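Quick one: structure tokens for this chain, please?
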Amino acid sequence: MRILGENERLTQGSTVATIGMFDGVHLGHVTLVDFLKRQASVLGKQSLVITFLSHPRQVLHPDEPFSLIMPMGERLARLQELDPDMLLPLDFTRELSQLNSVQFIELLRDRYGVAMLVVGYNHRFGHQRGETFEDYRRHGEALGVQVVKAPEYLGEYAPVSSTIVRSLIAAGKVKDAMHCMGRPFTLSGRVVHGFHNGRGIGFPTANVGETDPDILLPHNGAYAVLAHVNGLVLQGMANIGKRPTLDNGDNISIEVNLFDFDDDIYGMDITLEFISFLRLEFKMCSIDELKHQLTLDRSNAQRLLHEYLTQKQS
């Protein structure tokens, strides 16, 4: 697979392309790219996936908060795993956003050799947002570009969209998000020093800091997780929230208790895979009540992780 530079020009009529943000690279995206590759093979052309470096909302409405499912590097890696012939990371600009659909199709034809444009079943492009797929098809026909609609993903958890996946993660429904994405939602950071309260109650935690501020956080609460750190994959439970029982202020912290593991990992990179939601965060009446709840959480997390890993291996 070849990664293109934005200023490269491809031979006229040489590619079958699709374009989008592909945030989360969920199962709907997998269906789209598989269809793209089949169409390219039938026509004897190269399959091309064009993905935006920044989300259009971040460019057009920079003052409005907006979070992504995954960072750009992971998104590009996931798209490469789908194995199109070519991948083009394209800078989304205000100038690009001002193109109408005719101008946009013409740009794809002239610069990137697009003979066929595969459009996601609910995708819109060009600043005339009221246009329909039939409008795109008609504009493409006039420009010598065939515009076709990819089939909708019809799996068990359909419909699937990046918006739906974001809403599931924000609600703490990480298991449902995993089924939509085909893999767990992940969050990466670095192990930093925290309050060190966990060790004193028998549940030492690694504090995950330096996370990407553009990446969505799951809803405050406790989760069963798999942690990737220092070449190891460890089972654990993570808490996202303000730690109200320990009165640690209003800052959101991400802490993970790793089962049967007590090595020094401060300063190391860590990635958490969120497997299942355990419970909401709430203030408890005493440290003893907190210890009892954490014991229950650990038992539930171990059971859920065992079920997940067993199913994954089968």
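The CA atoms of residues 189 and 210 lie 5 Å apart.
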